[in-house]
């Protein structure tokens, strides 16, 4: 038996050295009870702070029938050493109605003042977007196209590519851009669009999709496809018929509603801190 094997069997394993509390790599880990406001419950799955870095990984449970918007840098923390603003890049995270979403707020301090034993988080960038508003009244498109743009309620919609009109089916694509004011968003329900034939009957959009949310300046391509099957010889041949695309309640312009959360206290989790720093 080799000497190395004998020593391995006889000597106890060496314990790994724990990270010293004054080391830049030492992380204090925190715990906090969930908070709720306006039907949105926020919980923390991970929260820690080193000297120059703090991260709070949050879960947002949206129990409402509204969209939730989260500003990616919309938070600040208060510690004994001062107040610090989230350093995430600007942007917005969208959480669908009755759905969950996650986001991690990141904080940085080159002065090394983030390694504290507690903190208070203030979430400042969460808003609700209701879908229960009157639709934008937009002029219809006539197919074959007689106009190249429809503008209404902050929306600008233009044809994209060629309109295809066959005997019993028509399809077209449109690019819609939302140009509304700051503090508003645009919603598009392409499944609300219908296509009318000259006798007044209208037909559903077979390519319709659920609600799409657009921030100011964003665009979305929507497709309209309709099949009309009628008895011959008196049926409609869509290849040679003027059709009318009706927006109905497909376009919505909505003012966002800011949500106010209570200040959220995070306390040191001693056991988890010891475990994570081994």
Write a short abstract of this structure.
With 278 residues, this protein is mainly β. The chain has helices at residues 3-10, 270-276, and strands at 28-31, 35-37, 40-49, 53-62, 67-71, 75-79, 82-85, 92-95, 100-108, 118-123, 126-129, 141-143, 150-152, 155-159, 164-165, 169-178, 184-188, 194-196, 202-204, 212-214, 219-227, 243-246, 251-255, 257-258, 264-268.
Which features would summarize this protein structure in a list?
278 residues, 9-stranded antiparallel beta sheet, 2 helices, mainly beta, Immunoglobulin-like, 25 strands, 2 domains
Q: Can you characterise this structure?
A:
It is a single chain. The chain is mainly beta and 278 residues long. It has two domains: 18-125 and 259-276, Sandwich (Immunoglobulin-like); 141-255, Immunoglobulin-like (Sandwich). Helices cover 5% and strands 45% of the residues. It has two helices and 25 strands. The strands form five sheets. Strands 1, 2, 3, 4, 6, 7, 9, 10 and 25 form a nine-stranded antiparallel sheet that branches. A hairpin with a 3-residue loop joins β15 (164-165) and β16 (169-178). The longest helix is centred in the N-terminal third of the chain and has 8 residues, at 3-10. The protein is elongated. Residues 5-11 have low confidence and may be disordered.
Largest sheet: 9 strands, antiparallel
H and E order: HEEEEEEEEEEEEEEEEEEEEEEEEEH
Mean pLDDT: 90
Write down the overall geometry.
elongated
The total beta strand count reads: 25
The gyration radius over C-alpha positions equals: 28 Å
Which percent range describes the beta-strand content? over 45%
Structural class: mainly beta
Helix percentage range: under 10%
Task: Identify the CATH class of the largest domain.
Answer: Mainly Beta
Q: How many DSSP H or I helices?
A: 2
CATH-scheme architecture of the largest domain: Sandwich
- Spatial gap, N to C terminus: 33 Å
Q: Number of folding domains?
A: 2
């Amino acid at each position: 038996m080799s000497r190395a094997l004998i020593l391995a069997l006889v000597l106890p394993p060496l314990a790994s050295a724990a990270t010293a509390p004054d080391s830049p790599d030492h992380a204090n880990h925190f715990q906090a009870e969930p908070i709720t406001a306006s039907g949105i419950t926020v919980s923390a799955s991970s929260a820690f702070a080193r000297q120059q870095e703090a991260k709070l990984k949050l879960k947002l449970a949206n129990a409402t029938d509204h969209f939730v918007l989260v500003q990616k840098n919309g938070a600040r923390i208060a510690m004994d050493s001062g107040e610090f603003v989230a350093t995430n890049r600007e942007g917005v995270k969208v959480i669908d109605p009755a759905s969950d979403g996650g986001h991690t707020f990141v904080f940085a301090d080159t002065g090394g003042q983030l390694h504290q034993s507690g903190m208070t988080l203030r979430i400042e960038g969460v808003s609700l977007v209701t879908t229960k508003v009157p639709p934008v009244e937009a002029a219809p498109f006539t197919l074959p196209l007689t106009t190249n743009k429809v503008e209404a309620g902050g929306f600008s919609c233009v044809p994209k590519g060629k309109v295809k009109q066959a005997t019993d089916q028509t399809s077209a694509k449109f690019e819609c851009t939302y140009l509304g004011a700051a503090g508003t968003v645009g919603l598009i329900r392409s499944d609300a669009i219908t296509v009318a034939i000259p006798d007044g009957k209208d037909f559903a959009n077979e390519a319709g999709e659920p609600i799409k949310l657009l921030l100011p300046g964003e665009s979305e391509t929507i497709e309209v496809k309709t099949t009309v099957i009628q008895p011959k010889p008196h049926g409609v041949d869509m290849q040679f018929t003027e059709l009318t695309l009706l927006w109905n309640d497909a376009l919505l312009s909505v003012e966002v509603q800011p949500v106010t959360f209570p200040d959220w206290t995070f306390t040191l989790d001693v056991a988890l801190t010891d475990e994570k720093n081994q």
